[in-house]
Design a protein that fits this description.
Two copies of one chain form a homodimer.
Chain A (H helix, E strand, L loop, with lengths): L32 E5 L14 H18 L3 E11 L9 E11 L2 E10 L4 E12 L1 H25 L1
Antiparallel strand pairs in A: 1-3, 2-5, 3-4, 4-5
């Protein structure tokens, strides 16, 4: 199984009880990330069906996990979603994402939501920009440090 | 204020306590639907920021409400999201959707998420297909009727 993010991500964070808590597997598929999911009632759009925004969330997550399999951390720059058929709630679905093209830091991925029988219900393509995760985390840590120092100063003033 | 959907929609249903419960206003803007929103922590993607799928949800909802202002009920057929800058959590944001073109049952809309100062953080365009809501609701009602009849039969068998 792919390692789950230890954070609070709405899509895949195991610590976010309000999120989708998606768990992806590679199942020997190389750079293809696979997830089996049944979407609960709270994510409803049209009666009995998954909200279009949640469909986009599932597809974005699957493409993001394909980046992880390619060994990169990347931000979504653009995403195009093709809503082929309504996606039913509370139904076993297959979610799959994979890379299709790369040009330097630009990675184009695609993802699908399918019924177990194979029918494709929604599809997306996305452009992702690889980022230097260590540099970003260091910047966030520095920012947090600054905030902590400011908070200490505020406490002293009181 | 635009009438809120009385259903369980993840985006705008007032009865869905787990949803975004977006409330749109037209504020004399004609066919432009406007919403002020601050996204709670449970919809996190990158640390401190809104998940890309929730950004898509906000934009989809705003474009959907523009359809409502145009007097139609429509399904999202395709949506393209442009993630311009990270969208912060717990920050006052402006969400706006409007129609741009129409060809028969096809409606092209656009939507933006902006900071209060005007900076655009994300933008989407979508193609929506107008549907005959009464016909769809009648079909759903018939389907529910069938399910109710089947359930009664199952109950009698027990």
């Amino acid at each position: 199984m792919l390692p789950a993010r230890s954070n609070h991500c709405f899509g895949c964070g195991p610590s976010n009880r309000d999120g989708l808590r998606l768990r992806f597997y590679d199942e020997g598929l190389g750079d293809r990330a696979l997830c089996r999911v049944s979407v609960p009632k709270r994510f409803e759009g049209p009666p009995g069906h998954v909200h279009g925004g949640i469909i986009a969330t599932l597809l974005d997550e699957a493409m993001g996990k394909a980046n992880k399999l390619a060994g990169i951390v990347a931000m979504t720059r653009t995403m195009e979603v093709d809503y082929l058929r309504p996606v039913p709630l509370l139904t076993p679905l297959i979610l799959e994402g994979w890379g299709v093209r790369r040009e330097g830091r630009k990675h184009w991925n695609t993802a699908e939501i399918r019924r177990e029988g194979g029918e494709v219900l929604a599809r997306a393509t996305g452009l992702f920009i690889a980022i230097d995760a260590e540099r970003i985390l260091a910047a966030l840590a520095a920012q947090n440090g600054e905030q902590a120092t400011k908070a200490k100063r505020r406490t002293k003033r009181k």
